[in-house]
Every structure is written in C-alpha cells, then in structure tokens.
Amino acid sequence: LELQMQKKGFCMEVGQYIFVNCPAISPLEWHPFTLTSAPEEDFFSIHIRAAGDWTERIWGGCTSHPGPALARIEVDGPFGTASEDVFQYEVAMLVGAGIGVTPFASILKSIWYKFQQADQTLKTKKIYFYWLCRDTGAFAWFNDLLASLEQKMAESGKADFLTYRLFLTGWDNSIANNVAFHFDTVTDTVTGLRHKTIFGRPMWNTEFAAVAAAHPRSVVGVFLCGPHALAKSLQKSCHQHSSLDPRKVKFYFNKENF
C-alpha cells in the first residue's frame, strides 16, 4: 500500500523516515516508515507492507472501504539517516534487501528531478543499485519506478548513469522453467524490466572488484538498508577493496538496519 500525504509545512530530505500513528486503530502505537517520495514532489509518501495486525488493519481499511475512520493519520518527523549523505559521493553503491529498498526509491526519484532541473550542485556521476528479494512479489513494489527511470534516463541520454541489478534469492521450479523458456526475450520475465533478474545472492567480491576497476580514483559511498549479516559482508568487502594509496579507490560503508 502506498500512502500519500499532503505537504503542509512538511520539509524532508532523501532517505529520511517518519513515525505514523492511526488513532482509529491504536492511539498509542507509533510505527516507523521510510519516506519513499522525493523532496521535490508536492506530497510525501510511505509504502506499507501488510505484516502484522496494525499494518493489516491500515491496509484493509484503505483498500476495502476507505472512509473517515482511517482519515486521520498522525505523523512525527522526519528523522535523518545515513542515506542522506548519498549525494556527497561521485559514485554510490546502494544495496536494499526486501522492503529495505524504500530509502533508495526516494533517492533515485530525487536524482531524476535534479537531472531535469540541471542541478549544478549534484556531485553524483554514477549509481549502482542492488536489490535482493526472496520472492518475485516483492519486486512489484518499485517495478514501475525502475521502469520509468530506465525509460526517462535512456530518452535523455543518461542511460549509463544508473546500473541496477536485481537478485532473486528464493525461487521454485516453475519460475526457473519460465525464465529458461523466455531466455531470449528483450525484457525480463520476472520484472518486465530490461535488466535480467539474477538468481541467487550477489558475489560481492566480484561486484566490488568491477566497481573499483571502473572507478580507479574515486571515493565510493556504499549504502545498505538491510539485515545485520549483509552489513558485515559489505563492510568486509569495503575494507578489502579499498586501496591504501590515497590517490586510488576508497569504499566508505554507511548502514541502516531495520
């Protein structure tokens, strides 16, 4: 469920989050959600996955018979996170696991607006985006966003700016057979995007080595929104692939656990 709210005196930056309360469901429960809108948009939004009593009641109330009962939503925030620093780097690696993709939706949209406005302060020259999901349904959350960015960047001659790789970490025989059958199609059978979905987990050593080779003298910001085990693995790769020579590539790790 995407919930869009009016921006009346509400100011935000990319990657920030808010606490949300719905008095009709529970006057005392406040739940954190990452903002998925860009600061340039005239509304602010969150994406809610139904995964528990509170979220299921919000989801049900909005999808079955939206009415005055759920009309009042209270918001506290926004609050800052490490993701806000993404624009400080010429090259950025963004890693989202499952619903951890949400801060990067805000970042990717904001970058697109900065391109359109020819923002001279934008340092970022290249973004690598990695999204890991256990099931194909999760890709539906931001497929539309990625598809529209893919098309817009191609049309404006900026197709090389964003490289994204989608990893499906869980699958069954029916998915595997379907992918094998449609192997030679232009778009991916799982997501409908031009970039093909990769089955299994990323080989981080290979990914970091490729980025280091492509940007031998850059400072690369690595941003994660995902579980602790993945954070440890990325931190290790940042350390292994950073050069001791100050004139060569350096990877800086920024994490956000949920």
From TrEMBL:
- List the InterPro entries: Cyt_b245_heavy_chain (IPR000778), FAD-bd_8 (IPR013112), FAD-bd_FR_type (IPR017927), Fe_red_NAD-bd_6 (IPR013121), FNR_nucleotide-bd (IPR039261), RBOH/FRE (IPR050369), Riboflavin_synthase-like_b-brl (IPR017938)
The reaction(s) catalysed by this protein are:
NADPH + 2 O2 = 2 superoxide + NADP(+) + H(+)
Residue span, FAD-binding FR-type domain: 1-85
Kindly give the membrane topology term recorded for this protein.
Multi-pass membrane protein
Enumerate the GO terms in the molecular function aspect: metal ion binding; superoxide-generating NAD(P)H oxidase activity
Whether Metal-binding counts among this entry's keywords is yes
Would the keyword RNA-binding be found if you checked this record's keyword annotation?
no
UniProt keywords (A-Z) are: Heme, Iron, Membrane, Metal-binding, Oxidoreductase, Transmembrane, Transmembrane helix
* Gene Ontology cellular-component annotations: NADPH oxidase complex
Where does this protein reside within or beyond the cell? Membrane
One biological process GO term for this chain?
A: superoxide anion generation
Would you tell me the protein name for this molecule?
NOX1 oxidase
Q: Which organism is it from?
A: Brachypodius melanocephalos (black-headed bulbul)
